[in-house]
């Protein structure tokens, strides 16, 4: 309860923001080292923490970190799209296209790794946007349905036409020079995607995307062509996924039908649900918890999914706002009982 | 009949209602007059119990913290912590702001949905009674509620709250967005409802001019605080009310 009566006197719990910054438009004036640490602490701790885990732990856990970062990026991109009013069930589509793009460039054109990944990122984003352009006018569940079906269709298309390696996939692709490059690259990309997209959403330009989610008709009535902006958001979001796909292709030196698997679509959504939607950092946190958790549960064999599901359900019921919202509230706000006069 | 005792409602740190005590006696039409942000809708939601639900939802998702102090009693029973559906069973029925109706159902279906608490055999008679009070609804009874005009939707919304056979009917801004002629018709219907159904009515409005002549007593709210209390005529002749709400 948030109210309390002591000796006939009413008390109420008050929330106060730990207001530390003097803000004028977009200039922050920080006045002490303490305040700088207050802002830096929640950003530096995960960056350093993950770096330590990635560089110091044995090779098995390095691979887990790689997968975690990839899913975290998929989740961030899912959240970015949902911040722009596009409910996507098809991260696998973007991921798969990026993966096959990188595989194709490497296998047929013999391009080196440092060219295929950027190329695949851009072409993957473009192709995904092109494929989804006709349905960009759909909203909510209809858009979600189309994005859900497309990767399954592409998977069967590759199987039937035997294009791009067919059922066997493309094997023997170029690897990364060494595992240090691999780990550093994916971590850098993940933090760049998170902080970049966060900055982007907070800018005036990003405001348009958020307003499309809030009320697309009002945005249209302000003279904004929302379909053009949705296409841009789609390109940005799918490029991030395409990068993940390209990275994974070279990491495993293989691409094939499994890259369109449902897992790549569902796990980011679960991560966003338990991490906290519309924060970008929340889904990342969710993925950071879910992927290693699913690795830890591996020893339970088939029961893994049961435990996994149970933990998901408990999280969603216990903290419907998401872990990140909860943590940031506790970090940024003080609470105290005040007497009501 | 209804007694609100020292009610205080906080939305986070903002005070929406400040130590408000009002009383509604059986058979009265009581008006709550106030401009925007006076706390009218909050008061209505508190009396109908919807605020308890909002408070729980906000608490679960860690959103806005709603704090409620004070007591509500209805027919001698303390209802401060009674949920909204139970309050409807006790006889407090709210017709919410901006006439929410089930847009995909036709008028008759809307009334049938609202008749959930009535015994089966009384439903037909009650629907006929609603059409008698709002004759304009009768020719539209097979039309989808979403296609009705604002005034017709408002009539339907009031008709729906009537279907639960209330003892106390709460009307939240029934005149909002209606043309002056429609407002007059609606006000006449409200008087009819009191006369024929014997329902006590608590009505919240910012258009004081059409409302003041029909109310027995009125409270004037400003920023959640009670500023004036008097009979309808007293308020009508009050120079402050005239200046603030009649624009003269």
Q: Secondary-structure map with pairings?
A:
The complex is a heterodimer of chains A (341) and B (248).
Chain A (H helix, E strand, L loop, with lengths): L2 E4 L2 E9 L4 E3 L2 E3 L3 H24 L2 H25 L7 H18 L4 H20 L7 H22 L8 E2 L7 H24 L1 H11 L1 H6 L4 H27 L1 E2 L7 H13 L5 H16 L7 H15 L4 H10 E7 L2
Antiparallel strand pairs in A: 1-2, 2-7, 3-4, 5-6
Chain B lengths: L1 E10 L2 E11 L4 E6 L5 H9 L1 H11 L5 E9 L2 E2 L5 H7 L1 E4 L11 H8 L8 H11 L16 H14 L4 E5 L7 H18 L2 E6 L2 H4 L5 E6 L2 E7 H6 L1 H8 L2
Parallel strand pairs in B: 3-8, 3-9, 6-7, 7-8
Antiparallel strand pairs in B: 1-2, 1-4, 4-5, 9-10
Helix pairs in contact in B: 4-6, 5-6
Structural commentary:
The complex is a heterodimer of chains A (341) and B (248). Chain A has helices spanning 33-56, 59-83, 91-108, 113-132, 140-161, 179-202, 204-214, 216-221, 226-252, 263-275, 281-296, 304-318, 323-332; strands spanning 3-6, 9-17, 22-24, 27-29, 170-171, 254-255, 333-339. With 341 residues, chain A is mainly α. Chain A has a domain at 61-267. Chain A is built from 13 helices and seven strands. In chain A, helix 2 (59-83) runs antiparallel to helix 11 (281-296) and helix 3 crosses helix 9 (226-252). Chain A has a three-stranded antiparallel beta sheet with strand order 1-2-7. Chain A is 68% helix and 9% strand. The radius of gyration of chain A is 22 Å and the shape is globular. The model of chain A has no long low-confidence stretch (mean pLDDT 88). Chain B is α/β, with parallel strands linked by helices and 248 residues long. Chain B has one domain (25-40, 89-246): 3-Layer(aba) Sandwich (Rossmann fold), CATH 3.40.50.300. Chain B is 39% helix and 27% strand. Chain B contains ten helices and ten strands. Chain B has helices spanning 40-48, 50-60, 84-90, 107-114, 123-133, 150-163, 180-197, 208-211, 232-237, 239-246, and strands spanning 2-11, 14-24, 29-34, 66-74, 77-78, 92-95, 168-172, 200-205, 217-222, 225-231. In chain B, the strands form two sheets. In chain B, strands 6-7-8-3-9-10 form a six-stranded mixed beta sheet, sandwiched between helices. A four-stranded antiparallel beta sheet of chain B has the order 2-1-4-5. In chain B, a hairpin with a 2-residue loop joins strand 9 (217-222) and strand 10 (225-231). In chain B, helix 4 packs parallel to helix 6 (150-163) and helix 5 (123-133) packs antiparallel against helix 6 (150-163). The longest helix of chain B is centred in the C-terminal third of the chain and has 18 residues, at 180-197. The two termini of chain B are 35 Å apart. The interface between A and B is medium-sized, with 13 and 14 residues.
